[in-house]
Design brief:
Chain lengths: 222, 233
């Protein structure tokens, strides 16, 4: 781990520790989505086992939008981003630090949300529960890595808060599908999620690599 | 001379479109199992092929732009115009595919839509390129072309992954008609009709693509001139 990456990471964590903006807003938003879905579909029994995987993934997805936008909007103020463009460190460090910080935030939100979720949807995990500890981080990494990249891409547009979901959601679809199917099959215990876990891992590797390669292009686009 | 060539191309394209229509509706025999509704394939398949070809052109344009933008500004502008034209005309053809497909599916399968590998891939492809066009609308200034090129590459990368993930999930779209297992293939008269339509729609698509490319190049030149005037004032 290079020192530049470490500096960026510590800075982001410290800002979050002092304000707790991202985690609090994400947590509340995700909670709202879970409650809304539960009102809209009134899930019971086997039906709630089937849809809950999708609900938790979509709740995370929607909730992370605000945090991802904030991550770069913060850098725009006082021309911090311009300073970072001039800094003699590779942009990949900055990108990776942001991804790691956001990954931590979203994971905390998921951990806090999980018990609430189990209660509201009356869930019993019928498959291998430990596999969830593989699926959720992999899916979250896919979301956060792509989200951070596209947030950096859309940050200089006119209506950036609007643009991020518009360009992120289509690209994220295969990962969402794999994440939903894997969580669903673990919760219901009907089928084996190994294939989907592998697919998520592959998606993570491919898109993280390409993001790292292309991040400098986005950062220095003029 | 150039005008004559364009006029000739236009005339050939129009004649081929008419000939393709005649082949598809009057010459090709009705399908043994599906009856008349299968004729939609003569519009569905050519549009899909043209859409995929144009998305590939768009990807090449995006890569070309990123490669040339530092050293060959003029080439980069040309590549960017191809990227935009390919994406825009490709979205139009992809829309035709997405409209004709459900019309056929309703009769043949009894349902409008299903989340099958090829259907989902085409839909996601359409969504990705619409988001690409939105990005080009929303971002102002010269950085737009770079950002759009990056998104274009990401989008193209996503397509095989979407396809594989859906193939593992479920597949309902008819298996490949050509070069598939025994029982695949078409009656010769149908193949002829399909090939004529492929050619006609390809020529038509290339014509629209070329026009869109010309318009974009003109707009680039106007923007350049405006920037020059603003600098001198």
């Amino acid at each position: 781990m290079t020192s530049a990456l470490w500096t960026h990471l510590v800075k982001d964590l410290r800002i979050e520790w002092r304000s707790r903006e991202a985690i609090n807003s994400m947590l509340f938003f995700a909670l709202l989505v879970v409650v809304l879905f539960s009102l809209a579909f009134s899930p019971r029994g086997a039906f709630s086992q089937e849809i809950s995987g999708g609900v938790i993934c979509v709740a995370t997805l929607f909730a992370s939008m605000s945090a991802l936008n904030q991550a770069w909007a913060r850098e725009i103020r006082h021309q911090v981003l311009d300073a970072q463009r001039m800094a003699p460190t590779p942009g990949a460090d900055l990108f990776l630090a942001k991804v790691m910080a956001n990954f931590l935030f979203v994971s905390i939100v998921q951990l806090v949300l999980a018990p609430v979720f189990l209660v509201f949807y009356n869930l019993r995990v019928q498959g291998q529960a430990w596999q969830l500890a593989l699926v959720l981080p992999l899916g979250t990494w896919a979301l956060v890595a792509n989200g951070t990249f596209f947030a950096a891409l859309s940050i200089r547009s006119r209506n950036r808060e609007l643009l991020l979901p518009l360009i992120l959601f289509p690209i994220f679809m295969p990962a969402l599908l794999a994440m939903v199917l894997a969580t669903g099959s673990i919760l219901t215990g009907d089928s084996d999620p190994t294939l989907w876990i592998k697919m998520l891992a592959g998606y993570d590797i491919i898109f993280t690599t390409v993001s790292l390669l292309l991040f400098d292009v986005v950062l220095h686009a003029e | 001379m150039k005008k004559l060539a364009i006029g000739l191309y236009l005339a050939i394209t129009a004649a081929l479109l008419a000939w393709g229509f005649y082949q598809a509706i009057y010459v090709a025999p009705a399908d043994a199992m599906q009856g008349e509704v299968y004729r939609i394939i003569f519009y569905h398949v050519p549009s899909a092929s043209v859409a995929f070809l144009f998305f590939a052109i768009s990807l090449c344009g995006s890569i070309g732009f990123l490669a040339f933008r530092r050293n060959h500004a003029n080439w980069a502008q040309i590549a960017d115009a191809w990227a935009l034209a390919g994406a825009e005309v490709g979205v139009v053809f992809c829309t035709v595919v997405l409209i004709t497909g459900p019309i056929w599916g309703r009769r043949a399968w009894g349902i409008w839509w299903t989340w099958d590998a090829r259907l989902t891939t085409t839909l996601v492809l359409w969504l990705i390129y619409v988001s690409y066009l939105l990005l080009r609308r929303f971002v102002a200034g010269p950085q737009m072309q770079t950002l759009a090129a990056v998104l274009g590459i990401f989008g193209a990368l996503d397509v095989p992954i979407v396809y594989m993930s859906n193939r593992w999930w479920r597949t309902q779209h008819p298996a490949p008609v050509f070069g598939g297992d025994s029982g695949s293939g078409m009656a010769p008269a149908m193949v002829t009709a399909l090939m004529w339509n492929m050619l006609a729609w390809l020529l038509w698509g290339l014509l629209i693509l070329g026009l869109r490319y010309r318009v974009e190049r003109q707009q680039q030149k106007f923007a350049e001139r405006d920037a020059q005037v603003a600098l001198e004032a």
